[in-house]
Design goal:
The protein is an all-beta fold and 119 residues long. It has no helices and twelve strands. It has a six-stranded mixed beta sheet with strand order 2-12-9-4-5-6, with no helix packed on it. A four-stranded antiparallel beta sheet has the order 1-3-8-7, with no helix packed on it. The chain has a two-stranded antiparallel sheet with strand order 10-11. Strand 4 and strand 5 form a beta hairpin. It starts with a strand and ends with a strand.
Amino acid sequence: QVQLVESGGGLVQAGGSLRLSCAASGFAFTSNRIGWYRQAPGKQRELAAAISGDGSANYVNSVKGRFTISRDNAKNTVFLQMNSLKPEDTAVYYCNTNPPLRINFKDYWGQGTQVTVSS
């Protein structure tokens, strides 16, 4: 059974930091590229950062230099260290494979974790 469980979100002031975690199970974690996606109110979900099985990472321009994605293949876990947070980082954050997992012809998503950055 596929599971993606995100945690670590919260309310933080601008300039602060948060570390998100995602525990994955039910699929071949090590061989998949994993991403952190985010969806702000009224906006489409976007891929903020992604990491391949070998550790190579990519970031959307708006988070470069502030966010760091990492993974622990032994524990099927992926992390997102977010520093120098800005109000525009406010969103629900989801982890998923890149491209997203599909189950019964639909994209599968976990519950996500809310990140709110106050100004």
